[in-house]
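Researcher: Next sequence.
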Amino acid sequence: MRTLLRSSEARWTAVVAVLAVAGVVALWPRGGQETEPGGRVLPWTVDAGRAVMTMPPDEELAPLRARAGLAPCPTPAPGAPPAAGPLVGITVPCLGSHAEVDLAAALAGRPALLNVWASWCTPCREEIPVLDAYAARPGAVPVIGIDIRDDATAALGLLADLDATFPSVADTDGELWAALQVPFAIPTTYVVRADGSVQRVNPPVVFASPDAVALTVQRHLAAR
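Model: Next structure:
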């Protein structure tokens, strides 16, 4: 009898594991050259294990960025300490333009919140307005979005529709995704400390209120 019970438990454990993996995979678009049902080629592919995101020309992005009204991407502060941490040496375009952003240098000496998102991610759509409300609070740490495996025009359109103005960068070559070891499910959030160290918010959470964001930032900055 015990043998039968153990066998049954093993089978159910295997089923649950398969379903869990399927659930995670469903949150992440597949690799390779993908197409939508209408036949349009998606603007990202996988090259050497990294998702490569295509950026439209400046003249196409300019009106979209103007409509979104995004805050400028961060730049290094005068007198800031040398950049440190896992993001050192990674330069990415500010979403909506081809201006280059060195996140490690731009955030050196100050804490920040990094949020990995994409326009195709339903939970991201729910969370973005919450992050924007937190970012507008006095005393909030800077919120920087990292748009991955996405269409830059769709990403800008979503931010405009949601009236979210915190800045985002586009991870065009997948370097931030690799450096941050982003799991195969988003949104994913990271707290950057003033010394450049980065900690992922784990267990993952889709923030439902600005207070929840503030408490998470406070807790992760206090932990060492």
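Model: The two ends are 50 Å apart (CA to CA). The beta strands are 44-47, 50-53, 91-93, 100-102, 112-117, 143-147, 168-170, 188-192, 198-200.
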